[in-house]
Write a structure and sequence with these properties.
Three copies of one chain form a homotrimer. The first copy, chain A, is elongated. Chain A has helices at about 10-15, 130-135, 260-265, 310-315; strands at about 20-30, 35-40, 50-55, 60-65, 75, 80, 90-100, 105-110, 120-125, 155-170, 175-180, 190-195, 200-205, 215, 235-245, 250-255, 270-275, 285-295, 305, 320, 335-340, 340-350, 355-360, 365-370, 385, 390-400, 405-410, 420-425. Chain A folds into two domains: about 10-125, Cupredoxins -  blue copper proteins (Immunoglobulin-like, Sandwich), CATH 2.60.40.420; about 155-425, Sandwich (Immunoglobulin-like), CATH 2.60.40. In chain A, about 5% of the residues lie in helices and about 40% in strands. The model of chain A is unreliable at about 1-20 and about 130-135 (pLDDT under 50). The first copy, chain A, contains four helices and 28 strands. Chain A starts with 8 loop residues before the first helix and ends with a strand. Chains B and C meet through strand 16, helix 3 and helix 4 of B and strand 27 of C. The complex binds copper (II) ion (CU) (6 copies), sodium ion (NA) (6 copies) and zinc ion (9 copies). One copper (II) ion (CU) binds near residues 180 and 254 of chain C.
Amino acid sequence: APPSPARPAASAAMMAHGVPNAVFTLRTGISQGKMVYIGKGGAIDGQVHPTLTAHKGDIVQITLINGEGAEHDLTVPDMHVVSQRVNGPGASSTLTFTAGNIGSFPYFCTIPGHRQAGMQSLIQVVPATPKEADKGVSIVRDPADMPPPVGERGPMTVRYDLEAIERVGRLADDTTYDFWTFNGKIPGPMLRVHVGDSVELHLKNAENSVMMHSIDLHAVSGPGGGAVLTQVGPGETKSFIFKALHPGLFVYHCATPMVSAHISNGMYGMILVEPVGGLPPVDNEFYVMQGELFTAEPNGHTGLQEFSFDKPMDERPEYFTFNGAVGPLTTEHPLHARAGDHVRIYFGVGGPNFTSSFHVIGTLFDRVYANGSLESPSLAGVQTISVPPGGSAIVDLTVPVPGKYIIVGHALTRMEKGLVGALIVDGK
Amino acid sequence: APPSPARPAASAAMMAHGVPNAVFTLRTGISQGKMVYIGKGGAIDGQVHPTLTAHKGDIVQITLINGEGAEHDLTVPDMHVVSQRVNGPGASSTLTFTAGNIGSFPYFCTIPGHRQAGMQSLIQVVPATPKEADKGVSIVRDPADMPPPVGERGPMTVRYDLEAIERVGRLADDTTYDFWTFNGKIPGPMLRVHVGDSVELHLKNAENSVMMHSIDLHAVSGPGGGAVLTQVGPGETKSFIFKALHPGLFVYHCATPMVSAHISNGMYGMILVEPVGGLPPVDNEFYVMQGELFTAEPNGHTGLQEFSFDKPMDERPEYFTFNGAVGPLTTEHPLHARAGDHVRIYFGVGGPNFTSSFHVIGTLFDRVYANGSLESPSLAGVQTISVPPGGSAIVDLTVPVPGKYIIVGHALTRMEKGLVGALIVDGK
Amino acid sequence: APPSPARPAASAAMMAHGVPNAVFTLRTGISQGKMVYIGKGGAIDGQVHPTLTAHKGDIVQITLINGEGAEHDLTVPDMHVVSQRVNGPGASSTLTFTAGNIGSFPYFCTIPGHRQAGMQSLIQVVPATPKEADKGVSIVRDPADMPPPVGERGPMTVRYDLEAIERVGRLADDTTYDFWTFNGKIPGPMLRVHVGDSVELHLKNAENSVMMHSIDLHAVSGPGGGAVLTQVGPGETKSFIFKALHPGLFVYHCATPMVSAHISNGMYGMILVEPVGGLPPVDNEFYVMQGELFTAEPNGHTGLQEFSFDKPMDERPEYFTFNGAVGPLTTEHPLHARAGDHVRIYFGVGGPNFTSSFHVIGTLFDRVYANGSLESPSLAGVQTISVPPGGSAIVDLTVPVPGKYIIVGHALTRMEKGLVGALIVDGK
Ligand SMILES: [Cu+2]
Ligand SMILES: [Cu+2]
Ligand SMILES: [Cu+2]
Ligand SMILES: [Cu+2]
Ligand SMILES: [Cu+2]
Ligand SMILES: [Cu+2]
Ligand code: NA
Ligand code: NA
Ligand code: NA
Ligand code: NA
Ligand code: NA
Ligand code: NA
Ligand SMILES: [Zn+2]
Ligand SMILES: [Zn+2]
Ligand SMILES: [Zn+2]
Ligand SMILES: [Zn+2]
Ligand SMILES: [Zn+2]
Ligand SMILES: [Zn+2]
Ligand SMILES: [Zn+2]
Ligand SMILES: [Zn+2]
Ligand SMILES: [Zn+2]
């Protein structure tokens, strides 16, 4: 849930079809009787003469918007760039450069007298090492990483601490991507509470983040589902409390514009609100979410992949993923059960866009809580269940025969783009 | 429901990848012993020597098909065009020109003796002013524009008068489109009856229309859902009566081929057939429909946008809309409620193609009548509901906390293409 | 259900963006102390010095992979091709040629001494006549081709014999395609059993097939849904037995990688597992499935169409089909009923990818068994039902008024690509 449907500066820049990865907008104005640059959107929103932080190697884009009418421009002499002059309210100019060296570099207005009057600040280029160290790190959440059932008890206040972490991780063999995550893995941690519980949710944005982030939980009743209260810049923490009124399996996701980009990059997870009496017990519980990645280069290219700005608009993902990467549920983290086990999968779709036709080859779902709802009639004897983006389903199945059961979206060309997992059933 | 699955002339021309907007097909034949041109498809279907009407500025396309075998052609000397000769049954030729000036211009066959024998008629170019006057007019139906509940009563005959109106309206700031509508707004009016009622439906096609139109209601049992009985040319009116046998929320739409183009251009709405005893009362009722627009130029271009003939085939809309335009439910007509209100949204998808993952950020649906069905088990505690094109859902929600609740399809890249609304909740 | 999620050689070749239609991978290795070529994937998997069979006119592609490290290559002198040398484990080279003439042609390694040591075998080019004779043959299964209800009885063992048949058939007027089918028609035969029955399923792959095939039934509990046990090369037959544990309408399909290509090409059908007590009797039962075809040339081109390797990845079908071809349910095999009849349609989606918004214009579904499930609450009064790929629905409707009822997916642009049928209702 974005705080407002207006498209922010970062998103507008994204639409310009370039691929800057450190994007800022500055508006000129008057503050306390002086001419100033004011940050607009993102982590610098509303700041007077903000320090602009980028990582070494970033393509930096600064859009200057004339806010009060007098003529201005913006230069970063160390980067050999100067904007056009903007004259009259609403006039704007954009400049782009690469942050090649670490250090602090002044930016200011070249109109005679303006810099002296205060129109200046710094661009700070920090090392990219935290991300480079991450190269090849797994961002895949183990599907077995499920908290235990809550069990029957009276309502409590449950505290969760989440952290928005941007990190380069492994998308496929020899292919990495600059993921945005909750707690470093995709999906974010499964939160698990009892209906009636109060949830105290703390969201930190890591110090070395470049973007703002936030959280919208579909279990929340209130504006933005929490996102209005949790827009956090790098290093910031915010929190709020909500009451889990409805039992069910609910998606959460970052809701900082452009929301679909934050979701695509990996910022989604789920919260399970257990009903009174709990769910019927099973032998194995798993946590699986479907995602889409939009890379500038086609599926299969190696190296660090850049986000594509066109492909999301065209709804053309290059990768479909279970738990964040290409096929990790077949290799790194297959699901494991024993013959005869009752298995439950908590399945959700981050998306951002594609409905999943969730299916486990060689099994039928004995029970399906469609729409992730625990207040609706459940289904039985279901082969394939449709799950929309921002939606979920709880599926129960039994696996009498040992062997390998392939987990797919039955839109089967997506298997070729990474959407495949395995449930391995050993003899008892 | 098209009267027949055969692709009509207009549609065949559309497939030719040009962008004519006044499209005619003439077949040669023999009528009462004379060689004639006969209109084929559209408003001129079956007419001998039809007058072809276009608006000033239209790109006119005429396809000549040899129907009886003798050699013919077609010329419009004032437009400096002449077709190839068509010789033998089935031979055809197409010519295209721009209707630059208002007036009446002869067309005829140049084969010696044919014009004299009667093979001639007129192209009438009329002012485009009625449409130009419309430029920028809102075509957005206020989501609060809901008729009141029918209440409990015996079966009645209810009369509705609908009019197919083509008008240039506002798609986005500084962007207009030549919409086709029922009663001038998108969606068409909500019809509201009681199960068992007889509905007498009159469909007029406005005098200044260029296309034929019709209506197919999903509440009708009978060929074409009404579309077979209501194909109306410009200025015509037709009517029929049907009995509302099933309670539910049903889509209606124009079903004149190419049906998907008529739907995309705005010709859809809904009829609510209330069940015995009515629906549970709520504080606020709203009416929202999702649509897709296919413009030749990309999303964001200003000025009058042309329909694209390729993009519908590729299922690549440039715009997604609630109630016809880009984001009008956030600006022009947000939904309004007060804290604690029970809110009901009658939601449908015109499409033509995309399933909606309907979601209101910051709320859960307390009750969902999925598929628009009032004879099926309802759902509760639902975060996101899938609604197919030509389908609907009734969703009930409560909004305890004041603030702004963003209405989306959870395929969230579509938000960037216009699919966003707001429910504004004031304190009580 | 593929036996393994690993992408096989044939599929890797497909990704190379060429259009070979006889694709082989050979790995070098040591077998019984000798240097050998070993087949990898497809019908030759694991064979030492396999004979490679192609049809006259095929574009043959052979990928050579170095398996053991010594230097090798591969030549087919009669085709004037020789691969690059592959040196060191994992090195590979691909050659492509056209099988222009019928006959047996040696292939071997040119490294001195290797051919003599045994590194040689044959490419056999067989006549394409069996397929040419098929040109224009109908591959459309009559929707009335439904076995009768099973009726109430104790559990039995029911035997079905299916045959994978590749044949050139009619896709549209003057347009043909090399379909892959079960039993020569699309969809494959409706299997119909009683819950609790044991099904003995024999799958033969026709002698003149080029590909391996298999069967995965969504009614099966066990790895691959049967596909692990039924991978059959040309001329082979395999069988297995399973118990139909759940009532419902279940999709079956070929699950030989690349699975989505086998499905797209026509290898899908359904099995109806009747519940205890059977389904309520109706007057007419029909069998309809939706498919997608990916042709290299756009919709509407005539002649024999080639499979496109890019379009499935982009989810851009050129054709949408009911029962395998363009509009056959309006022309060749419309559905027939009489006024007042109760009609049931067993509807499924082969896909591979698109969810159907199934709708019959001019009717409402009185009853829908959504998800093909007979153990879940059924729905009533439904206008349009979402059916995912690899999913199904049973819909009941009544047609009181004579006339023509058009069958569509309500994503109506697909009608222009072939997705249309008709239910013709005669007076009683
Ligand atoms: Cu974020
Ligand atoms: Cu399957
Ligand atoms: Cu119309
Ligand atoms: Cu949300
Ligand atoms: Cu096959
Ligand atoms: Cu309809
Ligand atoms: Na970044
Ligand atoms: Na899928
Ligand atoms: Na027009
Ligand atoms: Na959506
Ligand atoms: Na294959
Ligand atoms: Na459809
Ligand atoms: Zn950076
Ligand atoms: Zn490349
Ligand atoms: Zn959401
Ligand atoms: Zn016009
Ligand atoms: Zn442009
Ligand atoms: Zn319709
Ligand atoms: Zn072949
Ligand atoms: Zn062409
Ligand atoms: Zn399947």
